[in-house]
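Me: I'm a chemist; would you kindly supply a protein sequence with its structure tokens?

Assistant:
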Amino acid sequence: MQNMKEKLFIEQTKFNLESIDYKLIKLPNDKSLFINANENYEIVSVNFDKITVRVTRTIDFSPEEYFSLKISVLVDFYVDERTKEGLPTEKKLEEYVKNNLSVIVNKVPVGSWISLLAGEITSNFGQTPIVLPPVFLNSDQQ
């Protein structure tokens, strides 16, 4: 039997909103503000049943802050049995997930979901909605 290449097979995904933290700091004035957006991924658990990743997107402004918004989502990736053929141990699976985390997360529409949610929250009180691209690279991912 030929040895299968390392590959992660996902049966389905599930998103769960973990938290939203929105703080209005001060109303904007006529000064120019620059938006700062960051997205971080944290592996919560890895096994042959399910991989859980926390995706956190933070939005704030500089030089002075207008508001800050932090959205955290737990993403469950349900692992298909075929994964064991190329990644036979949980240690190998965990190493694979760690080395390919941003690719794995960006294959599902969690970024679109977070972006839509951020737009809804920021437009809810008569403000201009902040709509960010669904997928973007932080400086450490480029």
The mean pLDDT is 87. Residues 10-141 form a domain with the Bacterial Protein-export protein SecB fold (CATH 3.10.420.10). Strands lie at 10-24, 34-46, 50-62, 67-79. The CA atoms of residues 120 and 129 lie 7 Å apart.
